Amino acid sequence: MRVIISAGGTGGHIYPALAIINKIKEREPNSEFLYIGTHDRMEKDIVPNKGIPFEMIKIYGFDRHHLLRNVKVMYHLLHSRKKCKKLIKDFKPDVVIGVGGYVTVPVISVAHHLGYRTFIHEQNSIPGKANLYLAKIVDKIGISMKSSETYFPKNKVIFTGNPCSEDAIKKEAMDKTKLGLNPHKKLVLMVMGSLGASTVNEVIVSSLPRFSKESYEIVFVTGKGDYEKIASLKFPSNVKVVPYIDGMTGLMKKTDLMVTRAGASTLSEIIALGVPSILIPSPYVPNNHQYLNAMDLVNANAADIIEEKNLNTDILVSKINDLLYDHTRLTMMRDNLKTLGVNNSAEIIYDALQDLIERK
């Protein structure tokens, strides 16, 4: 299979794209790929490091607040379309895939114009602007959450789940002793994303001394930006502070309760691994989509939620203790998560791509 794939801006788009690539490689080892991304976002570093051929286009999102800047946006969009046309014609893909981010707009629209089969994937409850625009012209649309189905043409939609879930399931469980943890004690894993996380980190830091007499352990992943400042503070012996964890899903398999944001990829891993969670959605994202992502789980009694505007030390500590010592509710959450999951998401996407190619 010859595949052009595009996704950009955040890990929530990039890692599902990489999961799709991994599945295609698994099924067809001789497949060839070209990843088209932006010149100044995360993918320019992540993708080449994976050994995947990468091409950059210079493109920016539209700015509703500074309309004059959109003249520059249109200029780069036109040039991006021209470059995409050459890249696509030279590569001659069997299928062109978009996994979110404004970079996908010129890639998918040009591929459609040239007559190539196209597929996009949406990770969130409310689709991003790029996918809403592209939905009119693409051949098939994969969705992670059933609540997003109403935004797309029904005849194009496939409920695939998020392909990151399949990678999470395959990950080997981490030995907790490698982090200096007691394998016989319950574990609370606290992880915040980078966007607006400093505010939440401050509440978490102020709450940690309150856990000194509890029977469980806590791992707090601060993020690299806040780590040095936080690590200089003194915490109880049952609290471990780290800047990041390589292979987070391996530790999630040994986690009893997770406190985290509600990004699509994180939720796909929580669902796939059946990890009870307290979700603190980021309010700094378009369309408040993290809150709506979280509510998909909360409404299914598969997670709890604290909105950032309501977050304080007392609420966080009481929520954690109420849940962690309530075996019945934790079991209910795990059982309900099983009803939401798609354990072979990447496989479903691969089959959909094969079907598109065969119908060409």
Explain this structure to me?
- By secondary structure, the protein is α/β, with parallel strands linked by helices.
- The protein has 2 domains: 2-162 and 343-358, Glycogen Phosphorylase B (Rossmann fold, 3-Layer(aba) Sandwich), CATH 3.40.50.2000; 169-340, Glycogen Phosphorylase B (Rossmann fold).
- 43% of the residues lie in helices and 15% in strands.
- It is built from 14 helices and 13 strands.
- The chain has helices spanning 11-27, 43-49, 69-91, 104-113, 129-134, 164-170, 197-207, 224-231, 248-252, 264-273, 289-298, 313-324, 327-340, 345-358; strands at residues 2-6, 32-38, 54-57, 95-98, 118-122, 140-143, 157-159, 187-191, 217-221, 239-242, 257-260, 277-279, 304-305.
- Helix 1 crosses helix 14 and helix 6 packs across helix 10.
- It is globular, with a radius of gyration of 21 Å.
- The relative contact order is 0.12.
